[in-house]
Amino acid sequence: MKTIPAPAAIEPISVPSGTPCLELRDITVRYGRGCDHCRSGEMRAQRCTHCGSVYGCRDVSLDVWPGEVLGIVGESGSGKSTVLAVSNLDIQPTSGSVKLLGDDVSSAEGKQRRRLRALALGIVYQSAQANLLMDVTAGGNVAERMLGAGWRRYDAVRSRALALHTDMELPEDRFDVPVGMFSGGMRQRVQLAKALATSPPVLLLDEPTSGLDVSVQARILDLIRRIHAEFQLAIVVVSHDLAVIRMLADRLLVMRRGLVVEHGLTDQVLEDPQHPYTQLLVSAQL
Amino acid sequence: MSALAIAALTKSYTRHLLDGKRSVVLRNIDLALEPGTFTVINGPSGAGKSSLLRCIYRSALPDSGRIDLRTNGATVDIAAADERTVLRMRREHLAMTTQFLSVVPRVSALDLVRAQGVDRAGAVELLASLGLPPDLHGVPPATFSGGQRQMINLAIVLARSRPLLLLDEVTASLDPTRRNAVLQALLARKHAGVTMLGVFHDPPKMPGLVDRVLTLRDGTLHAA
């Protein structure tokens, strides 16, 4: 395996030992002002019948350690992506705390938030359009993240972007091609290269293989498994596909209507599900 | 000191899709495994034999009771341990075969075994010792027969070299020659000090392998 030049131009973020890379405690995301009725905690519906406030998620806690993969499953609208967006510091929770590498970053804003996003977190979305500029080249998309993190030397940026590009098993002659001309599977590889560009300790995956055909999906999963083993990342993967979760995750959260209804070891949750909803979910799998 | 000591283990399944119907499969099970011994569990289909193994591996969640796993100097109650501790126990002390092979697709048999931490020569030797033809070593098991899949399943578990092995019907779909090869491999592990608990429909007749046979019936263990 060839070595990828380390991001020497910037100080890589240090991962403290004895603490999770990412830790959410009692995270609630509410859209709307809320009222006594829904804040009391007795109301568990996603939308308050009194004030109309909507809960993206309620009282969600999770932790992920280096080298560990945490899966989140649940149907559409269950709050999976909300939890991921909180983890990526895209939304500030209404209540609860977010710790990244041991530091409380629940109210991180501005420069601190940009720095954490650049150095501590990498993310891959189901839709590449959410993450990549379609009329910019593969190399340009990856380089942009490095420039945002403070890299300045053109040749260093380019050589690392190219090394990541080929490490993600993308053909070298597509490095200077706009990603708008890439297939779905290749776009996911560019997203992975971009996410890993600054060697972040935490990787967030939001439905990384949904919408790809099965053979491409299998290859992307292989790649994610390899990345995970090689870099000992803490990974959170959100998917509605239980096969993807089984292949990747050590531990699992099951979400429904904004709440975590069950959590446990992946094989235990899938083979001996306790909650009625999880039993329904597992029995619905083909 | 037992390698594993189970006390008052109870396990039930509640099927919420069937109006919450609850079936108790294990009732107050006590079982101690001495280091380096081979214990066989048999009993009728559906008696809960696999559930017992899965509770020990914690791929099933016990209702109550203790499952004390003796590790280097310390004891861990698998029934109550947190998720991360269970994962660590699986990495260091505990391995289980399942009746159904579930592996990473498109990875060859040889690479699946090598991924468990043995070198190429060791993986080849292990697969050959279980009787998998050499021309299949480089093939992903997706197209394998039931018996061949079982061999891969066992090879993966044996390659992990854990001190406690949980074996679920590892010889069920094998011909007599291959069954013999598998039992020989298990005997070698026993001589190396590995503790084994195996579910077998018919207890293996290999001399020197089985130390005791217990029958699981109506949720309780009986001396056979």
Explained architecture:
The complex is a heterodimer of chains A (286) and B (224). Chain A is 35% helix and 21% strand. Chain A is an alpha/beta fold. Chain A has a six-stranded mixed β-sheet with strand order 6-7-8-3-9-10, sandwiched between helices. The longest helix of chain A is centred in the last third of the chain and has 18 residues, at 214-231. The mean pLDDT of chain A is 91. Helix content of chain B is 29%, strand content 28%. In chain B, the strands form two sheets. In chain B, strands 6-7-8-3-9-10 form a six-stranded mixed β-sheet, with helices on both faces. Chain B has a four-stranded antiparallel β-sheet with strand order 2-1-4-5, covered by helices on one side. In chain B, a hairpin with a 4-residue loop joins β4 and β5 (75-77). The relative contact order of chain B is 0.19. The mean pLDDT of chain B is 92. The interface between A and B is medium-sized, with 22 and 18 residues.
Oligomer: heterodimer
Question: How much strand content do the residues of chain B show?
Answer: 25-35%
Q: Give the CA-CA distance, first to last residue of chain B.
A: 24 Å
Order of helices and strands of chain B: EEEHEEHEHHHEHEEE
Protein chains sharing the most extensive interface: A-B, 22 and 18 residues
CATH T-level topology of the domain at 1-93 and 163-170 and 211-224 in chain B: Rossmann fold
Q: What is the typical, i.e. mean, pLDDT of chain B?
A: 92
> What structural class do you assign from the helix and strand content of chain B?
alpha/beta
Tally of individual helices of chain B: 6
Poorly predicted runs of chain A: none
CATH H-level superfamily of the domain at 1-93 and 163-170 and 211-224 in chain B: P-loop containing nucleotide triphosphate hydrolases
Strand line-up across the major sheet of chain A: 6-7-8-3-9-10
Helical stretch tally of chain A: 10
What about the largest sheet of chain B? 6 strands, mixed
Q: Globular, elongated, flat, extended or rod-shaped: what is the shape of chain A?
A: globular
- What class, by secondary structure content of chain A? alpha/beta
How much helicity do the residues of chain A have? 25-40%
Rounded to the nearest angstrom, the distance between the terminal CA atoms of chain A is: 38 Å
